[in-house]
Amino acid sequence: MNTLTVEALTFRDRGPYFLRIAGGKCLGLMGASGAGKSLLLRAIADLDPHGGRLLLDDMACDQVPAPVWRRQVALLPAESGWWHDRVDEHFRNFGALESDKLARLGFATDVGGWQVSRLSTGEKQRLAVLRMLENTPRTLLLDEPTASLDAANVTAVEKMLLDYGRTTPAAMLWVSHDPDQLARVADDIQVMNADGSLTGGEVE
Amino acid sequence: MGVKPLSGFDLALAGLLVLALGLCSWRLRLGLERRLAISALRTTVQLLLIGQVLRVLFAHASFPFVFGISMVMLLVAGREVMARQHRRIKGFSGWLLGTGSMFVSSFAVAFFALAVVIANDPWYTPQYAIPLLGMLLGNTMNGISLSMDRLTEAFWQQRQIIEQRLVLGQTSMEAIEELRQQAMRSGMIPIINSMAVVGLVSLPGMMTGQILGGSTPMDAVKYQILIMFLICAGTGFGVMTAITLTCRKLFDERQRLRLDVLKKQK
Fold first, then answer.
1. pTM of the full predicted structure?
2. Which residues fall within 8 angstroms of residue A43, CB to CB, at 6 or more apart?
3. Domain residue extents for chain A
4. Is B260 in CB contact (< 8 Å) with chain A?
5. What CATH number was assigned to the domain covering residues A4-76+138-200?
6. Nearest to A67 among B158, B164, B170 (CB)
């Protein structure tokens, strides 16, 4: 259930990529900067034109409207974007967020009224995780989700994402530069080489 | 009462003012002398030429002739809209977007004014049709080029935010709603502002000309009110059309942001 299948995915001069991540499993993705890890995530989120097939269980990407696909196959970009003044304006329904969830990432409920311009990079990153999970996606594409967090928050975010992935269950593709992190969170690891090719196994 | 004719010498006297300005620009190193000279020269040549064209046109008021002249005006305005954009949409479709929007709004509004409001016989009487269309095109051109420039620049600078909104599951039109509104506003605000101050601060050129030409002030004023309404509607609808079409063009069928359709100029 909630298996993400990437079949012969090609984009720009890259690919074909074959991936299969079962719901509740996490595939770690490593590789040098500029190898194209983010591009791969963007293609899977249907943000860039691509060839090949993307499937979530038996739902094909090109058979549902793009917003439907992107809500279910959620991309957490390395740098989150904020466009309104207040934090809660970026959520579908901030009031419905459980205070327990906010507390796990170190926030009180009054964070909804905070000005976005006051947020630190780390605060934005943690809030972006909550904002993404609000859509209850069935797949998580995570682009260095803890890059600008301190050790305590890294643990908290890792735990929240893993709990979400295991209980939903959601397929996870987790990009990180930290091998120790991937050893903690991933069921399997693939390495992207400079030419964009992947070496490693499948996660079933 | 006719207009007191101006001689070439009269114009040369006024030209001395521009020359004096050029000298100051040179002393202050503004670097505008060349552009000033070229623009002043273009004003003279273009207006003298159009004077000749209009003289012939007024003598032979045929529909194909009037239509042909208006098409030339449209094409030049369309080229100008393209040239004024920092990042423009590549290829023929970029040109068609701006020019098509101008055509739809300006020509529809001009036809309505000529055939329904003024109702001359024939409706395309060139003494009315050409100046009216000229004013409409000029203002619509400004509005459309300003708003399209704002829009593409905002898309470029906020691409990360637009894509963030897309990955959260917003549709392309939701993700750019504010940008679209700002661009439309920026194209329409100048004409709205000028409607608010006309007569108090500025006396429009057309009205001044009409009064100089011997019309009574009340006649001139009524024409000016008509023109202001027409320009306002023409610019507004033109801007809305151009921005709506441009927004569509910047996404593909899968609602992906496609900034690769833009080309940077200069």
1. 0.88
2. A9, A11, A50
3. 4-76+138-200
4. no
5. 3.40.50.300
6. B170
